[in-house]
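Work Package 3 (structural annotation) set out to generate three-dimensional models for the target panel prioritized at the project kickoff. During this period the team completed the workflow that converts sequence records into discrete structure tokens, so that structures can be stored uniformly alongside our sequence database. As a representative example, we reproduce one entry of 208 residues exactly as it appears in the project archive.
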Amino acid sequence: FVAHARVDELDPALFACFGRAWLSGAGLDGTLWDIKPPGIFWINALGLGFGGGSRIGVALLCALALSGSVCAIGILGWRGHGRWVGALGAVLAAVYLPHFDFHVGGNRPVTFVVLCEALALVGYLRAWREPRRRVMFLWLCGAACGSSLLFKQNALALPLALTLHLVWRRRAWADGGGSLVSAISALVGSGWAVLGLGVCGMAPVSYT
């Protein structure tokens, strides 16, 4: 996170400003307006609330998200190719994700998109590896995908890719005792459920 401790960037300061204004009673799309989904503003409001108005709370949440991403990427490598690949993946993630070109770890939406999508992939992989609990893992995968859409619109790419992969590998999925319809329903349904909760959460603090 130290790589992002800068004072010459507009976006992180703007997100913190939105979070502070939100805590003071301002509403999105009324007093405040931005083209981004509300997730990053919620994170800033939460961090500022925990930090007593200080941005240290926001920094801690971003650092936790980065740490979670590194762990999830390590788990993906471990589950897919063994412990050494997982360890290497975690090390490479820790080195490259905080690079300023990627903005992961800083007070930016992509910090939380990477976390949500890495967790979604962990759930998707587990769904293929554990047939008895595959629907549960697909629900978790879809929920993580839906959460990523609360931070950036282009996060839609991952659930679309996973749905296409399920269709492409439908015979292998059926051989494991699963229904393609139920799989896609779990993946897409849980994502929409999270987005619906996000809309409900936005309603009381919007258009004021």
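The mean pLDDT is 85.
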